[in-house]
Design a protein that fits this description.
Layout: E1 16-26, E2 32-34, H1 39-53, E3 65-69, E4 81-85, E5 90-94, H2 97-110, E6 125-134, E7 140-146, H3 154-166, E8 171-175, E9 177-178, E10 181-182, H4 191-194, E11 198-199, E12 209-210, H5 215-227, E13 231-238, H6 243-248, H7 277-293, E14 298-302, H8 309-313, H9 315-323, H10 332-346, E15 350-355, E16 366-369, H11 375-379, E17 384-386, H12 389-392, E18 396-397, E19 408-412, H13 415-420, H14 430-434, E20 436-443, H15 451-458, H16 461-471, H17 477-493
Parallel strand pairs: 2-3, 3-5, 7-8, 7-20, 8-13, 13-14, 14-15, 15-16, 16-17, 17-20, 18-19
Antiparallel strand pairs: 1-6, 4-5, 4-6, 9-10, 11-12
Length: about 525
């Protein structure tokens, strides 16, 4: 892309982009023609540009900005689009509504950066003339945000979604429960938030911490995200990482009468759910209310870092393992996940779980591989989302600079490592590669307290992940760096508190190999 035209430095990189001579001017009299099925995208264009540009962009059958659904463009898939900008008209076409939503974000990036800043005026705005045909490489392009360790207000989540959508990321994986907090309201089980939503201190600062969402807030977040083409995937951890739930309802554990607190430490807690029927009644009750709030086809059940010591010490768990025909209590993990996963399948949903080796989840699960490469899970027939910690964990340090903000130490995920991360594992054949849905970044928050810290850790590394997940193919690191330097003007206009680009941050040294607990 020509350096003389920084507006063409798009992130992520389109499949094909051909500059054309001339510019299209948008002014107060510019109107939008939305053909049937394109009304939602036209509404999003007005919502995003109206307050920041002062352009009303009213609907009109004679509009110079035309948005159209065309089923004959089936080769563009669900999210691809075609954008043609000439001196007199703009035409955005797609086969599916989500494709139009992606095209709207491209239009935003083609405008001058101050069109994103909220400084509306009476000026006209120019777009470069260009021809773009764009299709994503992967259909799952996500980011996980942990709100269990440190609760974040809905305003933070809405802004997080807005920035995701600008970069064509399409899945917000919301980590709602863990040992350190329970943020999902469940009407039938109010102590989950009244007790499980509070802990005496967090490891990072020793300060008491509390918070929970209302269902109205979460439903509004889902609506806000859907309008921008982002799916919110909720995660309810089980059968490990459940200390907050056990603090609220001790009978769900393995030792009757034991009272626990919400965990104030970080790492792997040895308390896990029991395997008696009351626990499965609890899981079904919780998940039914989760599904009422979140229409996502995917529901994440956690499933990782589950110690089996309590089951091995429990006569009831040993009896349960024997009755299920298992070789021992260690087999209860897969059995537990299979029972709860089957419940989701019966409800028409798809269970998702973390996998450390690719071999510990039932076959109906979509697997997120965070420790080992995704090849083992793909070979077992799972759909896979690549989430390897050395390329996607954004709470890991970005550099070895001594002034890096609080975060996990002992591992390094620099910008280059994120952009170089290939979702398809090395050695995968065509069949295994076809099972890789995509990739996502993870941001765990034991050491991350504020929205400002979240943005600093997320950007520009999420720009790198978005570029690789959308564009696919071989990593064009020099080309990405060139585009990113121009793209930071857009981040500045939006007030993103990103880590500044420096010679060190743009270096290509390998990521560290240590693996702190998540």
């Amino acid at each position: 892309m020509p350096a003389s035209r920084p507006e063409l430095s798009l992130v992520p990189r389109p499949r094909t982009l051909s500059p054309r001579p001339g510019r299209l001017t948008l002014g107060k009299g510019t109107s939008v023609r939305a053909l049937p099925g394109a009304e939602a995208a036209a509404g999003l264009l007005r919502t995003l540009l109206g307050p920041t540009t002062g352009l009303p962009l009213p609907p009109s059958s004679e509009g110079r900005v035309v948005l159209a659904l065309d089923p004959q463009l089936g080769g563009l898939g669900d999210e691809g689009y075609g954008l043609t900008i000439g001196p007199e008209t703009l035409l955005l076409r797609a086969a599916r509504p989500d494709g139009l939503l992606r095209g709207v974000q491209t239009i935003r990036q083609l405008l001058p950066p101050d069109a994103l800043s909220g400084g509306a005026s009476d000026r006209s705005w120019e777009l470069p003339c260009v021809e773009i045909s764009d299709v994503p490489r992967y259909r799952w392009r996500g980011t996980m945000l942990d709100v269990a360790r440190h609760f974040q207000p809905v305003s933070c989540l809405r802004r997080y979604v807005d920035l995701m959508a600008l970069h064509k990321l399409n899945v917000l994986h919301l980590h709602l429960t863990d040992d350190q907090g329970w943020r999902m309201p469940v009407d039938a089980l109010p102590r989950l938030t009244s007790v499980g939503g509070h802990r005496a201190q967090s490891l990072s600062d020793g300060v008491p911490h509390a918070g929970a969402y209302t269902k109205a807030e979460l439903r509004d977040l889902v609506r806000h995200a859907r309008e921008r083409g982002v799916t919110v995937v909720p995660e309810i951890e089980m059968p490990g990482h459940v200390r907050a739930a056990l603090a609220a309802y001790p009978a769900l554990g393995n030792r009757p009468g034991r009272q626990l607190d919400v965990w104030t430490r970080w790492g792997v807690c040895d308390t896990v759910f029991g395997v008696h029927e009351e626990v499965f009644d609890f899981c079904r009750t919780v998940l039914q209310e989760v599904m009422d709030v979140f229409p996502s086809p995917y529901i994440h059940l956690g499933g990782d870092e589950c110690p089996t010591g309590e089951w091995e010490d429990s006569p009831a768990a040993r009896d349960r393992a024997a009755a299920a025909g298992l070789s021992g209590p260690g087999g209860l993990h897969g059995w537990f996940m299979g029972r709860v996963g089957s419940f989701l399948v019966e409800q028409g949903r798809r269970p998702v779980g973390w996998a450390e080796t690719g071999g510990e989840l039932p076959p109906e699960f979509t697997v997120m591989t965070w420790r080992d490469p995704a090849l083992a899970a793909a070979r077992r027939g799972h759909q896979v989302v690549a989430a390897h910690h050395r390329a996607t964990y954004l709470d890991y340090a970005q550099s070895t600079d001594p002034d890096e903000p609080p975060g996990q130490r002992g591992a390094l995920v620099p910008l280059h490592a994120v952009h170089a991360g290939d979702p398809v594992p090395r050695g995968a054949g065509p069949e295994e590669a076809s099972r890789v849905l995509g990739t996502q970044a993870q941001l765990w928050t034991e050491y991350v307290r504020t929205p400002e810290q979240i943005e600093y850790l997320a950007y520009p590394r999420l720009c790198a992940l978005a570029d690789r997940a959308w564009s696919g193919g071989r990593s064009d690191w020099p080309g990405f760096v060139e585009r990113l330097r121009d793209h930071t003007a857009r981040l500045d206009a939006l007030g993103v508190r990103y880590r500044p680009l420096t010679t060190r941050s743009l270096a290509t040294a390998s990521a560290g190999t240590a693996r702190p607990p998540r």
